Amino acid sequence: MKTLKKIGSWLANLFGFNKNSKYVSSYLNAADMRSGIYMAAIIVILEIWLVIRQHDKYIIPAVQGGTNYFKSLFDNTSCFWLLMFMGLTMLLYSIYYISKKRSIKLFVAVIVSASIGFALCALMPLESSIKAWKVGKEISNSLLVALYVSTALFQVSSIVAAIALHRGSKNEWLTTVLVVSFFALCCLVFGIRVSYNDFFTSSTLQPKQFICFLMFTIYVGCLLIWKPFVSIGILGAVFLGFYLLIKNTIGNQTVYYNGEIIAYINSLGETVPFDGSDIKKLVISRSFLDGDEINYLTFFISLVMVCVSIYSQRVAEARKDEELEILATKDKLTDLWGFEYFLTLAKAKTEEVEPTGWMYLFFDVTSFKIFNDQRGFAAGNKFLKDVGAILNDIFSDGLVSRQGDDHFVVFCEKEGALEKINIADSKVEKLDIDIKPGLKAGGYILKNNTEDPHRSVEKARYAFSELKNNYGKKYLEYDQKMHDSYHLIQYVVKHIDEAVENGYIQPYYQPVVWSNTKELCGCEALARWIDPRYGFMNPGLFIGALENAQLVHKVDIAMLTLVCKDLRYNIDHKLPVVPVSINFSRLDFMVLDVPAVIEGIVNQYKIPKHLIHVEITESALLTEGDVLKKAMKSLKEKGFAIWLDDFGSGYSSFNALKDYEFDVLKLDMQFLVGFGKNPKSRQLIKSVIQMAEEIGMKTLSEGVETKEQADFLDEISCGRLQGYLFGKPLSYEDLEKKIKNGELTISKVTEK
Predict the structure, then answer these.
(1) Are residues 506 and 638 in the same domain?
(2) I want to staple 406 with a disulfide (CB 3.0 to 4.6 A). Which of 179, 362, 368, 627 is the partner?
(3) Is there a contact between 553 and 587 (Cβ–Cβ < 8 Å)?
(4) Torsion angle in degrees (nearest 10) through CA of 64, 68, 71, 77
(5) Quick count: other Cβ atoms within 10 Å of Cβ 393?
(6) Which CA distances in Å does 143 have to 81, 207, 300, 321?
(7) Closest Cα partner for 127 from 85, 199, 198, 76?
(8) What are the angstrom distances between the C-alpha of 262 and each of 131, 206, 376?
């Protein structure tokens, strides 16, 4: 049974019974139009040649004999002119159909050509009156009428189809099918008429133009590649009809001489004369031989196989192209527009509409990480599909794309956008009543149609990023303040290499003291960017911008290099030195072999390894996993001390501490906020200090600003202190001055 189903499915696919996608159907229509170009061009060239041939062979001699020129021209070339303009209309329409930019000139050319062709069809009564409707010519004249009618229908359908294309009608495919159908009908009728007339009126044993029918069936067979079963049906009906027409007419075939019936051939193939005058010399009997019937059937089967083969090849190519286009244009998970293709579509749309009335929205799904953790990866994927479907439905007038992860981008009209955001947020929340996910968005309104879509989306994203500073809000719009900040960020990203090379980035040293003696036991090197254009930049701004651009490693490497230069200078000039701790971002471990880089720079300047302390933020423990573990193990093996920075800043995981070996734990300054008012703060700090000591870690507290805080920390055995009470971050020169002036006393003890 399964085998039969497979065979049935294969046959259904082979003969086109399976429904094709819109893309494949459109591909097949376009392929038919391309075929139409070549076939129509051949017809035009052939008919021009025939007109010239008829003109030289018949018209000129007739005119010389006294016949009216236009009458002779019409008598001998009317059908050729008819087919010439039929071919020209098909040629122009096919080119117009497949053109990416449909010009008005080409549209007018189609209309003009079709109109002239239709006007020629209107002369049909004139030709009928010239060629009298005589007994024995009923079929020939009927075929002539059919040719004119089908040609007229073709020209009319071409005009209608061209107008539909010009207006961008959704049903343009239907009118195009009519054009191809009537063009095929014209070709078949012409082929049948020429071959029929030649078969029965030729005065030679071998009719010369019987092949015309076969030629035009090849045209039609190669043109009608919508569905093989349609092609087979049409060709089968035509072949059978023509065969029956010939077979049924052979028995009473009439024979003409100078326009008069002189004899007929009966069903036995016998010639029966009317007057017996020299009949044997003038009448030739016709018959459809068995061999001809076999060849006729073989030709039909071969043509059918050609149609099936062409169809199969085109469908295979179309489906392959469709898959590639889907990969290039669609997001595989949600079936929304792929981000890059979305930007292309948005750019094109801004050229069609008033841009100031449109905007970009950048969406982020809130609580998605929680949803993914609790519901699983498969449920998370389905959830993103549902979110995409909601946005696509609500913003149906615009464009929707998934940029990546749980981020979506929308290009839509600004009017009513906020209301739609709220509706979308409400619907997303209902997708899980327990977790209650939602949407937050940043928006950017276009200023003109020349704006770069990438930049516009980034501005919307930047507006979204500011929501973290606006608790409770779900939407922020890009404004002038954001604009200034955004451009500063762009400046940072573009000029980081220049800043490093020209020394705009410098280490500022913040003193670290022993809690009991308050003597200088080290410094933390903090990056400062002193720009010739913007002056002293906010570290939070440029560090954050470089982290988002994954370029922060350039600052961290520059800082290590500059610190080593300063230490080398002091060592070479017999000046006092203290250990320096340097921050390394978690992103550094993603793009660099951090242990190898640190060791390389330290060895280059011949700095003792105990003078360099590597600080790693606590947030990195939760994101980098095995990569960070391997790097830390390597650093320890190379002899570097590792400090855990910002402990307690909101990401703390006491469980993570057991998996890593740190030398020093740095308490975040937030521990000391409200120190004097909240008694719990003292007990919490004391507990952390004791916990660190029990697992073999030394401690340092940041943000010490008062003597009361310093005394308490010393009392509970926090080993090192850092904060404005002991000094703000200082340039290398200012630090040296404070040491020289005795404001800072260097401890003789380097480790406790």
Answers:
(1) yes
(2) 368
(3) yes
(4) 20
(5) 12
(6) 17, 19, 22, 43
(7) 76
(8) 18, 20, 93
Residue 10: inside a domain: no
Residue 284 lies in a domain: no
The token pair at 497 is 């290499």
The per-residue DSSP string of 116-132 comes to HHHHHHTTHHHHHHHS-
Whole-angstrom Cα distance, residue 551 to residue 562? 18
Distances, alpha carbon 242 to alpha carbons 188, 200, 297, in Å: 10, 13, 12
Concatenate the DSSP letters of all residues of 315-362 into one string: HHHHHHHHHHHHHHHB-TTT-SB-HHHHHHHHHHHHTTS-GGGEEEEE
Q: Helices (DSSP H) in 224-350: which residue ranges?
A: 228-250, 279-282, 290-329, 339-350
C-alpha to C-alpha distance for 106 and 238, rounded to whole angstroms: 34
DSSP state of 510: E
| 506 & 402 share domain | no
Helix (H) or strand (E) segment spanning residue 525: strand 520-531
* Tens digits of residue pLDDT in 531-570: 999 999 989 889 988 988 889 999 999 999 999 999 999 9
Q: Are residues 710 and 561 in the same domain?
A: yes
Residues 461 and 557 in one domain: no
Would 216 be classed as within a structural domain?
yes
**Which pairing describes strands 520-531 and 535-536: parallel, antiparallel, or unpaired?**
antiparallel
The string of pLDDT tens digits covering residues 255-300 is: 444 445 445 554 445 555 555 444 443 344 445 555 667 777 888 8
For residue 344, the tally of other CB atoms under 10 A from its CB is 13
Whether 213 and 345 map to the same domain: the answer is no
In the sheet with 253-257, reading across from the earlier edge strand, the strands are 253-257, 260-265, 271-273
pLDDT at 259: 46
**CA 560/CA 552 separation, integer angstroms:** 13
Same domain, 20 and 157: yes
How many CB atoms within 10 Å of residue 501?
11
- The amino acid at 725: L
Q: Is 265 inside any structural domain?
A: no
Do 64 and 89 have their domain in common? Answer: yes
The CATH number of the domain holding residue 720 is 3.20.20.450
How many C-beta atoms lie closer than 10 Å to residue 691's C-beta?
A: 14
pLDDT at 129: 42
pLDDT above 90 for 682 = no
Q: Which domain holds residue 441?
A: 339-478
Task: Give the position of tokens 């392959």.
Answer: 320
CATH number of residue 361's parent domain? 3.30.70.270
**List of residues 6+ apart from 456 with CB closer than 8 A:** 360, 444, 446
How far, rounded to the nearest angstrom, does the alpha carbon of residue 281 sit from its chain's CA centroid?
A: 75
239, 388, 379: which is closest to 302 by C-alpha? 239
- Mean pLDDT of the 146-158 span: 89
The region that residue 607 occupies, defined by phi over 0 for left and psi between -120 and 50 for alpha, beta otherwise, is beta
